[in-house]
Amino acid sequence: MVKIYVDPGHGGSDPGAVANGIQEKNVVLAIGTSIRDILQLEYENAEVRMSRTGDTFPSLSQRTNDANAWGADFFLSIHVNAGGGTGYEDYIYTTLSDSSATGVMRARIHEEVMKLNGMSDRGRKKANFHVLRETAMPAVLTENGFIDNSADAAKMKSNSWIQDVARGHVNGLERALGLRKKSGSGSTFLIRVKVASLYYYDAPDWNARAGTVSQGEVFTVVETLTVNGSTMYRLKSGNYITANPQYVEII
Ligand SMILES: [Zn+2]
């Protein structure tokens, strides 16, 4: 198994960058949990651990210590940028070359994210960040647009953009780490609420969702079946909802 540590930045009392009515901590948690879900559903040799799965704030040392203790093969930190600019960039540790193992892995991720994120390319960069310096395994930090740029922020408010960015990261990880798709993984897919006008970045309360689809939420379908002539989907929670074409779109 390839052990992948996914680190959504900030969280809890640390919102990260804030602008245009959204907070970095929520955007990056949505991207990070989507990356985890895709890896777990579609790949046979990917094992995922996250620094946080809710609105909590592990310290930077807690994150790197946790990844090191777990024996991660790769550390992926997810952020969004601020400070006047637009577009995507990613980082490896200062002393690493682009031709190093980590540099080559980063190049794969960079290429695949850029194919799907609809953003301008600010390039491949280096920095002396804690999570890049204190990790005992290859580590990459991605900055997915500028929250204080209105066009980038509009993308961050879109569930489909969140999914595209997560998919880009996963496609890059697949190439960088030699991940293998499960056979028959085409039977798993995501559904998106078509009438969405609101977006919820926090994890849904699965137990409260039986029989309903809330606007703007993304569910992970693990099984499709027919009950009394109606198509139903088993969600990650094990709850069942009736698929209503007016409200549910297969993506
Ligand atoms: Zn950040």
TrEMBL record:
<dbReference type="Pfam" id="PF01520">
    <property type="entry name" value="Amidase_3"/>
</dbReference>
<feature type="domain" description="MurNAc-LAA">
    <location>
        <begin position="64"/>
        <end position="174"/>
    </location>
</feature>
<protein>
    <submittedName>
        <fullName>N-acetylmuramoyl-L-alanine amidase</fullName>
    </submittedName>
</protein>
<keyword id="KW-0378">Hydrolase</keyword>
<dbReference type="GO" id="GO:0030288">
    <property type="term" value="C:outer membrane-bounded periplasmic space"/>
</dbReference>
<dbReference type="InterPro" id="IPR002508">
    <property type="entry name" value="MurNAc-LAA_cat"/>
</dbReference>
<dbReference type="GO" id="GO:0009253">
    <property type="term" value="P:peptidoglycan catabolic process"/>
</dbReference>
<dbReference type="GO" id="GO:0008745">
    <property type="term" value="F:N-acetylmuramoyl-L-alanine amidase activity"/>
</dbReference>
<dbReference type="InterPro" id="IPR050695">
    <property type="entry name" value="N-acetylmuramoyl_amidase_3"/>
</dbReference>
<dbReference type="Pfam" id="PF19087">
    <property type="entry name" value="DUF5776"/>
</dbReference>
<dbReference type="InterPro" id="IPR044081">
    <property type="entry name" value="DUF5776"/>
</dbReference>
